[in-house]
């Protein structure tokens, strides 16, 4: 989350990395043990950095809930406990949504006399340790928020120059996840401000997920793979079609840099917050899943509509996001007015492909993809399963496939070549 009062520092010099998709054999990711060659070779991951934290987290993108998009600063320990309860009672926890992440505004406005962070006595009177114990008792994990600056974005104490003390404190509380923001950063380059917290977290001996929220200012995909488990590639999302589509495009350019252990983060989900239509939210969730983005619910899970619940509990779409091959899907073809008819795709384990036909226009249209766009031989026979209808729409498509797609909507499929045994999808 980003401060509104201050502008971020001007980006420093950047190395001229190319992120163009090239025709090459997909290399195995560091944590992928299976010697499996994907069915297609057009999804380049050659820029993926070797993950350095070495604590085994983030083999797939993180899933859970974050307080900011719906509650902003209006949070307290009861909201967090009730959210943990709701994640369990709705079945979301069983689907993998296991991080309960507190965002900004949990602490007092100043540190105590010993220089330590202190939970807000009015909103978190029982303390974070007690809250972590409660969340853990539900089989879930607790996340907390700080900032790689003098203050957080809402002007609470930041952790810059306090990394060791704060990391020890978080670990002593039983924290499992740290979102680390970028406000009031004193003009110090993020490449210098974020590694100290990595080292401090490692030194605690506790396994803590490290989520860098650097807003994409210094292109963190180029360096953050050696620092954290995920890195924000964009400015903050808001609950609108314009914001969501813009952010999807910005995140897309960094696809070759994502993989098991470290993920591009286009910000949290807005599904269920009311600013978009059902079709737009379904597209939002589908594209985030395909892009291997963190799936962090941003609505009030205590009060969800049936449509919101339907979207965020689609197990087949979640399975695309959590696929162990860990290759970020990307935009592979677009055409039509303003390139509004788009094909996004990415390889999956089991020699399969996930394909999204996304209509960025306002009117219903047919979107067609040819096999060569997907890196498939034109003569290859493919079975196609619709992940929103939960049914096979074709058992033997050859050369191309098309479907009618509502305006601002998408359709999402699994393509399985006929030579491959069908999965249990």
From TrEMBL:
PROSITE patterns: ALPHA_GALACTOSIDASE. CDD domains: GH27 (cd14792). It catalyses: Hydrolysis of terminal, non-reducing alpha-D-galactose residues in alpha-D-galactosides, including galactose oligosaccharides, galactomannans and galactolipids. It is an enzyme of class 3 (hydrolase). Its EC number is 3.2.1.22. Keywords: Disulfide bond, Glycosidase, Hydrolase, Signal. Signal peptide: none annotated. Pfam families: Melibiase_2 (PF16499), Melibiase_C (PF17801). Residues 338-414 form the Alpha galactosidase C-terminal domain. InterPro entries: Aldolase_TIM (IPR013785), GH (IPR017853), Glyco_hydro_27 (IPR002241), Glyco_hydro_27/36_CS (IPR000111), Glyco_hydro_b (IPR013780), Melibiase_C (IPR041233). The keyword Ribonucleoprotein does not apply. Belongs to the glycosyl hydrolase 27 family. PANTHER family: ALPHA-GALACTOSIDASE MEL1, ALPHA-GALACTOSIDASE/ALPHA-N-ACETYLGALACTOSAMINIDASE. This is Alpha-galactosidase. It comes from Rehmannia glutinosa (Chinese foxglove).
């Amino acid at each position: 989350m980003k401060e509104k009062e201050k502008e971020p520092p001007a980006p420093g010099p950047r190395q001229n990395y190319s992120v163009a998709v090239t025709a090459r054999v997909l290399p195995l990711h560091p944590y992928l043990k299976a010697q499996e060659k994907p069915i297609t070779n057009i999804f380049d991951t050659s820029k993926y950095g070797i993950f350095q934290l070495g604590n085994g987290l983030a083999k797939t993108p993180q899933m859970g809930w974050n307080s900011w998009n719906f509650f902003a600063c209006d949070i307290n320990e009861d909201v967090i406990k009730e959210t943990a309860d709701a994640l369990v009672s709705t079945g979301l926890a069983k689907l993998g949504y296991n991080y309960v992440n507190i965002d900004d505004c949990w602490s007092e406005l100043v540190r105590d006399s010993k220089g330590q962070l202190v939970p807000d006595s009015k909103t978190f009177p029982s303390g974070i340790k007690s809250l972590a114990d409660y969340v853990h008792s539900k089989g879930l994990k607790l996340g907390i928020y700080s900032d790689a600056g003098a203050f957080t974005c809402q002007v609470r104490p930041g952790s810059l120059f306090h990394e060791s003390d704060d990391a020890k404190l978080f670990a002593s509380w039983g924290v499992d996840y740290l979102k680390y923001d970028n406000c009031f950063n004193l003009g110090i380059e993020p490449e210098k401000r974020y590694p100290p917290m990595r080292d401090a977290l490692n030194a605690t001996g506790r396994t803590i997920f490290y989520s860098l929220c650097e807003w994409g200012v210094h292109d963190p995909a180029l360096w953050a793979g050696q620092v954290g488990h995920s890195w924000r590639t964009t400015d903050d999302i808001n609950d609108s079609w314009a914001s969501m589509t813009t952010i999807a495009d910005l995140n897309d350019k960094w696809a070759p840099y994502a993989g098991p252990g470290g993920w591009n983060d286009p910000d949290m989900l807005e599904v269920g917050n009311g600013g978009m239509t059902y079709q737009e939210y379904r597209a939002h969730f589908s594209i985030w899943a395909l892009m291997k983005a963190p799936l962090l619910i941003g609505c009030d899970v205590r009060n969800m509509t049936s449509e919101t619940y339907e979207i965020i509990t689609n197990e087949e779409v979640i399975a695309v996001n959590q696929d162990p091959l860990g290759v970020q899907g990307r935009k592979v073809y677009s055409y039509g007015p303003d390139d509004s008819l788009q094909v996004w795709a990415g390889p999956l384990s089991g020699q399969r492909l996930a394909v999204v036909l996304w209509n960025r226009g306002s009117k219903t249209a047919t979107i067609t993809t040819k096999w060569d766009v997907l890196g498939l031989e034109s003569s290859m026979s493919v079975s196609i399963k619709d992940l929103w209808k939960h049914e096979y729409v074709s058992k033997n498509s050859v050369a191309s496939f098309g479907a009618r797609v509502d305006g601002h909507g998408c359709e999402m499929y699994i393509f399985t070549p006929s030579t491959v045994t069908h999965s249990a999808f």
